[in-house]
Amino acid sequence: MGQDQRKVTAVYPGSFDPFTNGHLDLIERSTHLFDHLIVAILRNETKRPLFSVAERVVMIEEVIEDLRFPNVEVDSFEGLLVDYATRKGATVLIRGIRAISDYEYELQMALMNRRLQPAIETVFLMASEAYSFISSRLVKEVAGLGGNVSGLVPPVVEARLRKKLQGA
Ligand code: PNS
Known about the structure:
Blueprint: E1 9-14, H1 21-33, E2 36-42, H2 53-67, E3 72-77, H3 81-87, E4 92-96, H4 100-116, E5 121-125, H5 136-144, H6 155-167
Parallel strand pairs: 1-2, 1-4, 2-3, 4-5
């Protein structure tokens, strides 16, 4: 296969608990850069997530369907990220960097992943500055205390947050 026919698959891993407009911004940017993008949710119940993995998969799928991204799929994984990416034929890991405070942890992860699997490259993307202060943790905290999170998460996620927290 010629060099320019090679299709590049990227994995965008994370907890996505919940999925925010910052995550969505990164997906949109990634779709312009890579042929195929897999949004991969870590299955880690020890983190005591607000939404189950199944709920998160459905939510992200709903958002992606609404926006008609053709080259994005949603999946979940456990174990080492680089092993999952290798099984999926991916050569790129996408991570978002908001502020300098994210950098140290992200650098450690990227270098560890490179050591584990040198054929996979981490690519850092920056979401729009409009989303640079959004984190899933703060969204959960604000929503849990009755604050308004519209504009911070997609409407589908906002509705599910409301439902989940009313039921709590
Ligand atoms: O959204 P998060 O919680 O910051 O995502 C962290 C994630 C899922 C990317 C990271 O915890 C991960 O890759 N976990 C899988 C286990 C693994 O490969 N650990 C070694 C990473 S250096």
